Amino acid sequence: MRDLPASFSDKRRGLLMAGALLCMLAAGLLSLALGAVPLSPAQIWQSLLTGDRTSAAGRIFWYSRLPRTAACLAAGAGLATAGCILQSVLANPLAAPNIIGVNAGAGLAVTVCCVFSAAGWVMSGAAFLGALAAVVLVSCLGRLTGASRLTVVLSGVAVNALLNAVSETLRAFFPDTAMSSVDFRVGGFSGVTGAGGRLWPAVVVILAGILLAFLLSNELDVLSMGETTAHGLGLPVRRFRVLLLALSALLAGASVSFCGLLGFVGLIVPHLGRTLVGADSRWLIPMSALCGAALTALCDLAARLLFAPYELPAGIFLAFLGVPFFLVLLIRQRGGRIHA
User: Fold this and answer.
1) Sign of torsion over alpha carbons 63, 69, 73, 76
2) Which among 276, 294, 292 has a CA at the least distance from the CA of 284?
3) pLDDT at 76
4) Residue 227 lies in a domain
5) Residue 103 belongs to a domain with what CATH number?
6) Which residues contact 96 (CB under 8 A, 6 or more apart)?
7) How does residue 336 score in pLDDT terms, banded at 50, 70 and 90?
8) In what helix (H) or strand (E) does residue 147 lie, and over which residues does it extend?
9) Quick one: pLDDT at residue 173?
């Protein structure tokens, strides 16, 4: 993957990182304040300080806005970091959790959990296992059918379609499951609340996963140089490839467990991060997490406000952004002008 010119110093990268952090905080504050019933900064601050859950503003803040904002920020950060890891490990700029079936694997596991009324850590664990199974399946298919970058993506598209078909079959047989909504299939946050035990365990998993990804940034950079170079530098390639793929599955699975099959965050944001800070994972991983959180929160805010009193799932807005972006990348990939 191409790095930035040498003129991009650590100081400049630090300033860009600070700007991304401010954007994320601003997006989070807007998400807390705006909606069908606007909350003023004073009401938000009062609810935080007093823990008030009895007034109308307090109930809206604690039971609706705060869980939804936390879900937006966590899902965006988790999916963007998962996409960053996948693109480096698979050496493929087209790789993303929703493109190669990782989201669909997690979604199938979550659907099974809903059929059996499981929640909390069970659902997060099942989503991780489903995402990991999808990663393993795509990797095996890619090796069987050829190691080209496009082959891996096409294998992922096939796996994605198969797993989504199985999920839809389960929903047809169990129509009363909570995951039968359109929000889950395209990705959205309208059903997220602080109740039910699904959100907060997943948020903890996502935060821990992003921290671990940052701690493994040096190994990720070495692995992205190619298997031969990584072996020459003494890196146990197989061990770290498995570990990093499992980590990407953990992040994607935890995110999907509460936000549904949210697409294209893991595709768009890592490319944006490389444009801003380069391919050094020490900078790219936190930048991807911050930009992913801000982008998802802003898309959810647009979904709430633009067509009020109706609300579109946030995944629709991300699809409008992501599909043209993916097509451009695909055309450039076929033309041989992207080097991952």
Assistant:
1) positive
2) 276
3) 96
4) yes
5) 1.10.3470.10
6) 83, 86, 87, 263, 264, 266, 267
7) low
8) none
9) 86
